[in-house]
Write a structure and sequence with these properties.
Blueprint: H1 2-19, H2 45-57, H3 66-81, E1 85-94, E2 100-110, E3 117-123, H4 145-164, E4 170-176, H5 198-205, E5 216-221, E6 230-232, H6 234-253, E7 260-264, H7 271-278, E8 283-287, E9 290-292, E10 295-297, H8 314-330
Parallel strand pairs: 3-4, 3-5, 5-8, 6-7
Antiparallel strand pairs: 1-2, 2-4, 9-10
Helix pairs in contact: 2-4, 2-8, 4-8, 5-7, 6-8
The structure holds N-[2-(1H-imidazol-4-yl)ethyl]acetamide and zinc ion.
Length: 332
């Protein structure tokens, strides 16, 4: 018994000794671990969740429907309530089948006098087709709680914080329209062309302010789902490698490394692509899209009728929202 105890003590001592390295301190607890001090205001995930719920309560937000118009008006109003300077960019867009839809990009700006600016964006429309659901639901529009509303909800909560406390840089928040009107997968003849991300394509060629420039841009897409994983998306690394590192290392310091993993993701044609290609604003996509060896996948509710409030998770909203706040309040 005595021997056993001595042996255990020896093992315990050597573990402690090892963990202290060659430092001369004899503390059992490592005393040189510095805890990261957040400088941004606390992100309120309950409030962000309510902003997601409010959008979903309108029903699907498919262009050319009354629900879409009503939600757009609501978003303009919220941004104005939170002190943003709001510009609505209305446009006519041609979709994959040659039909025309009316689109509206909603732009809220803070600190207009500031030269140093950061662009934050998400899409506010939802998909007209549940084309990843069972075939009887292919033509039913989706609620897009995660696909659409989550990114906008987080950015509305960011806007509420910007109103309460100004960061050093100027911020532009854009809610892009018609991201999700891409060619349905059930169509046998897939037309040539870039039919996703129509609102951001339009903006990238028709900036709301002549000569608009930002240091960088961050896109939030599918950022509210339970057990979300954000890999380092291909175009984001290609065009904005240092911004990817900035965001992922900030997330890790804040304790959100479980969500922001240090792995390369697949390539996603999303709202950041035309912005990277046409405006020269290096932009990153934070998106729940996982690459595992040869297989790449969206979450299982993506483009199905299951993309409703039951998949939305407050911890995920907090991980993304707090990371964004920290990144922008650190910026000079
Ligand atoms: C592709 O599916 C290649 N791009 C669309 C990205 C997307 C759709 N994000 C949300 N909905
Ligand atoms: Zn989508």
């Amino acid at each position: 018994m005595k021997i056993k105890k001595t042996l255990l003590a020896c093992i315990a001592f050597s573990v402690i000794a090892c963990s202290c390295g060659n430092k001369t301190t004899s503390n059992a607890m490592p005393s040189d671990v510095t805890v990261y001090q957040r400088i941004s205001p606390k992100f309120n995930a309950d409030s962000a969740y309510n902003f997601v719920q409010k959008q979903v309560d309108f029903g699907p937000r498919v262009p050319n429907t009354p629900q879409h118009t009503a939600c757009g008006d609501y978003l303009v109003n919220e941004l104005k309530t939170f002190g943003a300077n709001v510009i609505e960019q209305k446009m006519s867009l041609t979709i994959y089948n040659g039909k025309k839809i009316s689109g509206r990009n909603i732009i809220g700006s803070y600190g207009l006098e500031k030269k140093n600016r950061i662009l934050l964006f998400a899409h506010w429309d939802t998909r007209a087709y549940a084309d990843s659901d069972s075939d009887k639901n292919f033509h039913t529009p989706i609620l897009g709680a995660d696909d659409g509303a989550s990114g906008v909800g987080i950015l509305l909560e960011v806007a509420r914080n910007l109103y309460a406390q100004s960061p050093e840089v100027g911020i532009d928040i854009i809610f892009f329209d018609a991201e999700d009107y891409g060619t349905p997968s059930f169509l046998e003849n897939q037309p040539e062309g870039n039919w996703w991300c129509l609102g951001s394509q339009y903006w990238s060629k028709n900036l709301h302010v002549k000569g608009y420039k930002a240091k960088y841009g961050i896109l939030l897409d599918l950022v509210g789902g339970k057990d979300a994983t954000f890999c380092k998306e291909y175009y984001s690394i290609r065009y904005a490698d240092n911004i990817v590192e900035k965001i992922w290392s900030t997330a890790r310091q804040l304790g959100y490394g479980k969500y922001f993993v240090a792995r390369d993701g697949g390539a996603i044609v999303d709202d950041h692509v035309s912005i990277n290609q046409n405006t020269g604003i290096p932009s990153v996509d934070i998106i729940n899209y996982v690459k595992n060896g040869q297989t790449e996948s969206f979450p299982e509710w993506h483009h199905t009728l299951d993309d409703n409030m039951t998949v939305i998770n407050k911890e995920t909203l907090e991980a993304v929202g707090q990371t964004i706040l920290e990144v922008i309040y650190k910026e000079k």
